[in-house]
Design a protein that fits this description.
It is a single chain. This protein is α/β, with parallel strands linked by helices and 275 residues long. The chain folds into 2 domains: 2-170, HUPs (Rossmann fold, 3-Layer(aba) Sandwich), CATH 3.40.50; 183-270, Pantoate-beta-alanine ligase, C-terminal domain (Pantoate--beta-alanine Ligase, Chain: A,domain 2), CATH 3.30.1300.10. The chain is built from 10 helices and 9 strands. A 6-stranded parallel sheet has the order 1-4-3-2-5-6, with helices on both faces. Strands 7-8-9 form a 3-stranded antiparallel sheet, covered by helices on one side. The longest helix has 16 residues, at 121-136.
Length: 275
């Protein structure tokens, strides 16, 4: 696996890989979910690159940018073991030169949910992803479905610009008890770790209620109440159109249950298809 830390090194390594390339963008602190993204990319038959960059522009002023886990040596070992051909590790100055004057503003699927709670987050995500696409020039990019709203924002941005990159969602990887893998799970206390799978169980129960004829309002309100009783603080728990992320009051088209809930200082995000 070649490791590139400068644009010159990246361009040299990229030129040797041929026209087709799968990209797995990450912020590091890799886990089995990231390995699954590499595995999915490899099934397309093209070489696979992964980026590691903790992007400051997608963190708010009171969020955990400085505390976000950085485990570079372990990450590189994981990527090489998974079969990556190239690892791209830019620094902040490379991604955001002092004279840079352009950012991407996103609307549509970016407006609600995480977009409301974390102002500017998706502009930061869209900008850094567009930069990575321009630098690495992949033919396809692979993203985990755990961040469902993020995938819709990136897919919309890629179609609107447009950029010649296929966006490939990869199913969420979970622990045996249902907890979606996340780099931030390592910050859960033992007690919180025992509580955390309740979010996914509650979503699964809500989906079952909806699919057997319960009203959306009833299923959502009972789910929110159950989470609160268990000690989680929901930011939202909603049934939405799978692509636009607009709320649904009936199960009439492809839908997704999406949720975010605080457990101590950790925010858990999850989503599942419904119907």
């Amino acid at each position: 696996m070649r490791i590139a830390r400068t644009l010159h090194e990246l361009h040299q390594a990229r030129a040797a890989l041929g026209p087709a390339l799968g990209l797995v963008p990450t912020m590091g602190a890799l886990h089995d979910g990231h390995v699954a993204l590499v595995a999915a990319a490899k099934t397309a038959g093209a070489p696979v690159a992964a980026s590691i960059f903790v992007n400051p522009t997608q963190f708010g002023p009171n969020e955990d940018f400085l505390a976000y886990p950085r485990t570079e040596d372990a990450d590189l070992h994981r990527l090489e073991s998974a079969g990556c051909a190239l690892a791209w590790l830019p620094d902040v100055a490379t991604m955001y030169p002092a004279d840079a004057a352009t950012t991407i503003t996103v609307q549509g699927p970016a407006l609600r949910w995480e977009g409301e709670i974390r102002p500017g987050h998706f502009a930061g995500v869209a900008t850094v992803v567009a930069k990575l696409f321009g630098q690495v020039r992949p033919s396809a990019a692979y993203f985990g479905e755990k961040d469902w709203q993020q995938i819709q924002v990136i897919a919309r941005m890629t179609a609107d610009v447009p950029l010649p990159v296929q966006i490939v969602p990869v199913p969420t990887v979970r622990e045996p008890d249902g907890l979606a893998l996340s780099s931030r799970n390592r910050f859960l206390t033992p007690e919180q770790r025992r509580q955390a799978p309740l979010l996914h169980r509650t979503m699964t129960q809500a989906a079952s209620l909806l699919e057997t004829g319960s009203s959306v309002a009833e299923a959502l309100s009972s789910s929110i109440a159950a989470l609160k009783i268990a000690g989680l603080t929901p930011d939202y728990f909603a049934l939405v159109d799978a692509t636009s992320l607009t709320p649904l009051d009936a199960l009439t088209r492809p839908a997704r249950l999406i949720a975010a809930a605080k457990l101590g200082r950790i925010r858990l995000l999850d989503n599942i298809p419904v119907g």
